[in-house]
Write a structure and sequence with these properties.
- The protein is an alpha+beta fold and about 210 residues long.
- It has 5 helices and 5 strands.
- It has helices spanning about 1-20, 30-45, 50-65, 80-125, 130-145, and strands at about 145-155, 160-165, 170-175, 185-190, 195-200.
- Strands 1, 2, 3, 4 and 5 form a 5-stranded antiparallel β-sheet that branches.
- Strand 4 (about 185-190) and strand 5 (about 195-200) form a beta hairpin.
- Helix 3 packs antiparallel against helix 4 (about 80-125).
- The protein starts with a helix and ends in a 5-residue tail after the last strand.
């Protein structure tokens, strides 16, 4: 979506200007400004704030050059037209910021809901008297879509990590299998003597 937003921000304003110049009944300045504003909002919905800022600047420049008298110059003859273009830029930037913020908040809400669902499931397992460790490992494996999750313990005598003594409860998934093509391993410390080893697809740091 980010790539599509940048492409739309670069290609959209010139394409819209060309279309408006081809249809003379749509080249009145108020109509032009509203259409450029709609395009900028569309870019914000697609790619976020930064592509929308580029689309807003491009829209302002093109509306000034091609549709504001005297046309094909950077001069604005009437003050109200200059004000209209500035309002276009301000509204486009403000709306793009609101749309981008709403998209970020939606993403954060979905992530928080998934985390809450996972914690609720684990808590139910504890209340039912189940062993929380295998439940936690299995839900972690499912949530991150990994091949395997292993709880490992440090052997102080040799400073080596191995699967905890309760091996059956400390492994979720096919821990003995090698990683698939394009996959890898990730190690997450739990405490000084415990760590999680995840095997499967590549994960970003967050």
């Amino acid at each position: 979506r980010l790539i599509a937003g940048w492409v739309l921000a670069v290609v959209g304003p010139p394409a819209l200007a060309a279309g408006l110049l081809a249809v003379h009944r749509l080249d009145a300045l108020p109509t032009v400004l509203m259409l450029f504003l709609a395009l900028t909002v569309g870019v914000a919905i697609t790619g976020g704030l930064r592509p929308a800022l580029l689309a807003a600047v491009g829209s302002g420049l093109l509306s000034n050059y091609f549709f504001t008298p005297p046309v094909r110059t950077w001069t604005v003859a009437e003050p109200q037209n200059a004000v209209a273009i500035l309002v276009l830029l301000a509204v486009a930037v403000a709306v793009s910021g609101v749309v981008d913020l709403a998209a970020r908040r939606t993403h954060e809400a979905v992530r928080a809901r998934r985390e809450a669902d996972a914690l609720t499931t684990i808590a139910r397992g504890v209340l039912r008297g189940g062993d929380v460790v295998p439940t936690l490992l299995e839900h972690l494996r499912e949530a991150l879509r990994m091949d395997a999750v292993v709880l490992e313990e440090r052997e102080d005598s040799v400073d080596r990590w191995c699967t905890t003594s309760r091996a059956d409860d400390a492994v979720a998934g096919g821990a003995g299998e090698g990683p698939r093509d394009g996959a890898g391993e990730h190690v997450l410390p739990v405490s000084e003597h415990l760590r999680l080893r995840l095997r499967g697809r590549s994960l970003a740091a967050p």
